[in-house]
From TrEMBL, chain A:
Gene3D superfamilies with a match to the protein in the record: P-loop containing nucleotide triphosphate hydrolases
Protein name per UniProt: Phosphate import ATP-binding protein PstB
Domain ABC transporter, residue spans: 5-247
Gene Ontology MF term list: ATP binding
Pfam family, one: ABC_tran
Signal peptide: none
Coiled coil, from the record: none
UniProtKB/TrEMBL annotation, chain B:
Protein's name in the database: Phosphate transport system permease protein
PANTHER family for this protein: PHOSPHATE TRANSPORT SYSTEM PERMEASE PROTEIN PST, PHOSPHATE TRANSPORT SYSTEM PERMEASE PROTEIN PSTC
Pro residues: compositionally biased ranges: 1-18
Provenance organism: Streptomyces lasiicapitis
TM spans (from-to): 38-63, 94-126, 138-162, 192-210, 260-281, 307-326
TrEMBL record, chain C:
Family indicated by similarity: Belongs to the binding-protein-dependent transport system permease family. CysTW subfamily.
Protein name as annotated: Phosphate transport system permease protein PstA
Transmembrane segments: 29-49, 55-74, 86-107, 149-168, 180-205, 211-228, 260-282, 328-350
Record InterPro entries: MetI-like (IPR000515), MetI-like_sf (IPR035906), Phosphate_PstA (IPR005672), Phosphate_transprt_permease (IPR051408)
Region Disordered, residue ranges: 1-20
Start and end residues of each ABC transmembrane type-1 domain: 142-346
Species for this entry: Streptomyces lasiicapitis
Source organism superkingdom: Bacteria
Function: Part of the binding-protein-dependent transport system for phosphate; probably responsible for the translocation of the substrate across the membrane.
Low complexity: bias regions: 1-19
Cell compartment(s), UniProt: Cell membrane
Length: 258, 341, 359
């Protein structure tokens, strides 16, 4: 089930350093939104503010509003644990739990809640692995450790783990940057399928990838090193790549800097 | 992973151990200059001296023990007496380590049972719970605990702690006396339990430090995986930190066990020894290898010393095995995590 | 929300529905209040039931704190949060459990030790003082400890340093692996066993009497592995570029080690040696077997029994009377101060001379 995210006036800090400044945007449900921009422009930081992972970093602090269909994620009384269950995340490096089997990795999120039936668990694991296009490759070795898979398979395992808890939104932080081209293609196909069911936000360094997978693209930039990153513009992907309204975006996309 | 590297691989500025650029290897192999040869000889010689000392320790202890055991009229492993002078047997040496084995194991187990959970708790506290400004001072306090000499622990245990334990012990006796283990007659609380408590405090730092180190090595992305699934802090620890750190905790405990087994003067100061084996750990009596050596030494003649050396050899072998096993676990862990990183 | 929902296939595992983002939470100050409350109730129970040991009071308070936090959280916040709270409160209690003994030990030592610790105590021996008579001091013991530790350093530091150099700069064969393993194992040798070894070799076999030197040999065995370990760590921190730069200039390897590697790591090595000294200065067991102790001043470590500070504490305690206890505490205070100074200075040097790791 997909939801809309409305961000307004968001600042994020590392200690006293302001990493991103005054970001406002809307992320449409059931679509893929890509964040692009040069290194250090704060797009990953911004992504991590969307499920309250930023505050896990020592010194991490956030100001502003992130509304998930009308509920403020940073409102008083909101439990970050529940936020993270509602908004799943896939990381740059595949990070399956090294001590758990493939099955347990996918089931990990469900087991946290404690209330599940064995048969139900089997169904969910199978469905999630199928959803991540991994089922056929691993169905015979569900009890083997997840760290034995290839990099691309591990990343799809992490996606299966994230979608097993049926989140509203799926955040992906450069999910393909550690993968070879074939695995990358598999993940991109998967993203195309997943957007039928989830709101997807993806950070990427690869502009072709943003053009291939996303419906909307947001361009982030920073005026100088040490300055906070800002949102320059967000628009339909096609428009951003053909006829952006800001000069800096065009410069970046055409490779004139960054 | 196949991350494309855009910088050429640097000759590693490694803090990880064996820097082996080839030219260096060649230089060390063909140490042709006299200076190099002498220096290599000296340093390798030192390593060999070190091994020689270990071998000598084993050899001398074994030799003196064989002298003692040849004349022992009791069974060395099962005798409940320590009478190398043969006072009760008309001149025939009669001694064995049964009581010492029992006392050493019991007091060390008590120490581990108390210390391991506390140490793991503190290690988690430092690595995951304490506010960041507090973590370093706390680690320092734990190091101070390690720097206090064991004789001071002994003095403090005997004069300050032990008198305070009578209340606790009669309390234990009231509720758990029926088990036999916690029976308490009400004498001076200079018992194996008191020794165990004191040993627990003494081995706390080493277990804490080794576990903390392991917990801090848990890769961040591993913990984030659990967090992103909506895990609470405790669930993160249960899912990512503890499974990763299990072997580290085990070897840390074994290092602590090694310390507890061999601790001498604190035990000798606190324990009221006697050569009996009893179920109750709260009543005074019993003894440990190291304590027995320290207590019996001053009154022992030459043969009596050999008898003590024989018991020391057993202690040496036990601690060797425990420490060796702990080190092997740590070494294997390093390989495992290195291959996985 | 804009989209008319095609309800997604089954939501297993009781996923939180949107409004569940909020969770009932205990207020931020609740742990403190529970802690203070538990402490008060613990003391109350202790007073009421007339429990004479403060330890019981503390244990009751600790159990109350853990239990109350858990049940409050379980009713207000639910099971998972309650488990999290349980873990947090247990971890805090564990930490306090470790701090209490240290605080008590230091407090008692300072309180009881400062009674007789003064200039006189530091500069007089026990030569003319009977065991149950007040007066006397630790001068002879200080001399003994300093000489024994000094001699132990003379043996252990060169061997330890050179072994570490061998392991880091040369060793990569079977011998190096063996040495590494046995250095680790040697760290775990009980001090009494080191004492027994020197006893069997020096006194029983070669027929020498007790002396400071015999004690120093045993202490050096305990010191060696510590020196090797810490030196090794420091040498490994020296960036390889430094060695290569020197070798590339045509400097022979041994001079590279002496002139480039060691000076870079010297701060850390000194720290390691001082920490090792701090460790052996408090050792009693081997000294008991090999040095024996004496009430008079003997400044010759190679002849006859000597005194030593830890041994002095043990023997004063064994005398079993109040003046003996007072002297034992005073000597313990002196020993702790000595060791703490070593520790603090060592750490100071470590911080001051920390090698730049090149990152």
């Amino acid at each position: 089930m997909a939801k809309r995210i409305d961000v307004s006036g968001l600042n994020a800090y590392y200690g006293s350093h302001k990493a991103i400044e005054d970001i406002s945007m809307t992320v449409e449900p059931r679509s893929v939104t890509a964040f692009i921009g040069p290194s250090g422009c704060g797009k990953s930081t911004f992504l991590r503010t969307l499920n309250r992972m930023h505050e896990v970093t020592p010194g991490g602090r956030v100001e502003g509003k992130v509304m998930l269909d009308g509920d403020d994620l940073y409102g008083s009384g909101v439990d970050p644990v529940n936020v993270r269950r509602t908004i799943g995340m896939v990381f740059q490096r595949p990070n399956p739990f090294p001590t758990m089997s493939i099955f347990d990795n996918v089931a990990a999120g469900l087991k946290l809640n404690g209330s599940y039936k064995k048969s139900e668990l089997n169904d969910v694991v199978e469905k999630s692995l199928k959803g991540a296009n991994l089922w056929n490759e691993v169905k015979d070795r569900l009890n083997k450790p997840g760290s034995g898979l290839s990099g691309g398979q591990q990343q799809r395992l992490c996606i299966a783990r994230a979608i097993a808890v049926e989140p509203q939104v799926l955040l992906m932080d450069e999910p393909c940057s550690a993968l070879d081209p074939i695995s990358t293609l598999a993940i991109e196909d998967l993203i195309g399928e997943l957007k039928e069911r989830f709101t997807i936000v993806i950070v990427t360094h690869n502009m072709q990838q943003a053009a291939r997978v996303s419906d909307r693209t947001a361009f982030f930039n920073l005026s100088a090193v040490g300055q906070p990153g800002k949102l320059i513009e967000i628009d339909e992907t096609e428009r951003i790549f053909s006829n952006p309204s800001v000069q800096a975006t065009e410069d970046y996309i055409s490779g004139r800097f960054g | 992973m196949d991350i494309p590297t855009d910088t050429p691989p640097k000759p590693s500025p490694v803090p990880d151990g064996k820097p082996t650029p080839t030219e260096q290897k060649r230089a060390s192999r063909g140490a042709t200059r006299p200076g190099d040869r002498i220096f290599l000889g000296l340093s390798r010689g030192s390593g060999i001296v070190l091994l020689g000392i270990m071998a000598a320790v084993a050899a001398f202890l074994a030799y003196r023990s064989s002298v003692a055991l040849a004349d022992d009229s009791g069974n060395f492993l099962t005798t409940f007496e320590w009478d190398p002078a043969g006072i009760t047997t008309g001149g025939k040496p009669y001694f064995g380590i049964a009581v010492l084995v029992f006392g050493t194991i019991v007091s060390s187990i008590i120490a581990l049972v108390i210390a391991v959970p506390i140490a793991v708790g503190i290690a988690l506290f430092i690595s995951h719970y304490a506010p960041r400004q507090l973590a370093a001072p706390i680690a320092y306090v734990i190091d101070l605990l390690a720097a206090v000499p064991s004789i001071v622990y002994g003095l403090w245990g005997a004069i300050v702690v032990a008198p305070n334990l009578t209340g606790l012990y009669s309390w234990l006796d009231d509720y758990f006396g029926w088990t036999g283990i916690f029976e308490y007659q009400g004498g001076a609380p200079r018992s194996l339990m008191t020794v165990g408590i004191l040993l627990a405090i003494m081995i706390l730092p080493i277990i804490t430090n080794v576990s903390r180190e392991v917990f801090l090595q848990v890769p961040k992305f591993n913990e984030e995986a659990a967090l992103a699934l909506g895990a609470t802090r405790w669930e993160v620890i249960r899912m990512s930190v503890l499974p990763f750190g299990r072997s580290g905790i085990i070897s840390a405990s074994m290092l602590g066990l090694g310390r507890a087994l061999g601790e001498t003067i604190a035990v000798a100061t606190v324990l009221s020894p006697s050569f009996i084996i009893q179920a109750s750990v709260l009543d005074y009596g019993g003894g440990t290898f190291a304590q027995n050596i320290a207590s019996k030494f001053s009154e022992a003649d030459e043969y009596g010393r050999d008898a003590l050396i024989a018991s020391g050899l057993v202690l040496f072998v036990i601690t060797l095995l425990v420490n060796g096993a702990a080190r092997m676990i740590i070494a294997r862990r390093k390989e495992y995590s290195g291959a996985n990183a | 929300m804009s989209i008319t929902t095609v309800k997604p296939t089954g939501t297993p595992g009781g996923k939180p529905s949107p409004s569940d983002l909020k969770a009932a939470r205990l207020p931020r100050w609740s742990p403190y209040v529970i802690a203070v409350g538990s402490l008060a109730v613990g003391c109350g129970i202790g007073l009421a039931a007339d429990l004479d040991s403060r330890m019981q009071w503390g244990l009751i308070a600790a159990i109350l704190f853990v239990g109350v936090s858990y049940f409050l959280s379980a009713t207000v916040e639910g099971g998972r949060q309650a488990k999290d709270r349980l873990a947090t409160s247990v971890v805090w209690v564990m930490f306090l459990l470790a701090v209490v003994p240290l605080a008590s030990l230091i407090y008692e030592t300072v309180k009881r030790g400062s009674k007789v610790l003064d200039g006189y105590f530091l500069t007089h021996s026990m030569g003319v003082v009977a065991d149950d008579e007040a007066g006397g001091g630790i001068y002879h013991a200080l001399i003994g400890t300093l000489e024994q530790v000094g001699l132990a350093c003379l043996i252990a530091v060169p061997i330890g340093l050179l072994t570490a150099i061998y392991l880091v700069e040369y060793g990569r064969g079977k011998l190096a692996k063996t040495v590494t393993f046995f250095v680790d194992v040697m760290t775990g040798i009980p001090s009494i066993v080191a004492g027994l070894f020197v006893l069997s070799f020096w006194i029983l076999m070669l027929g020498f009497g007790p002396s400071g030197w015999a004690g120093a040999m045993a202490l050096s065995i305990l010191m060696m592995p510590v020196v090797v370990r810490s030196t090794e760590e420091m040498l490994k921190l020296v960036p390889n570029e430094l060695r290569e730069a020197s070798l590339a200039l045509g400097v022979p390897k041994w001079r590279t080690i002496l002139k480039v590697v060691l000076p870079t790591a010297i701060g850390g090595i000194t720290t390691g040696v001082m920490l090792a000294v701090a460790r052996i200065a408090g050792e009693t067991a081997p000294v008991l077997l090999l040095v024996w102790g004496t009430p008079v001043i003997n400044s010759d470590p190679f002849k006859d029994a000597q005194a030593s500070l830890p041994l002095y504490i043990y023997q004063q305690y064994q005398s079993g009377n109040q003046v003996g206890y007072d002297r034992a505490w005073a000597a313990a205070l002196a020993l702790i101060v000595f060791i703490m100074i070593l520790n603090i200075v060592a750490r100071g040097i470590a911080r001051w001379k920390a090698p730049k790791t090149g990152r």
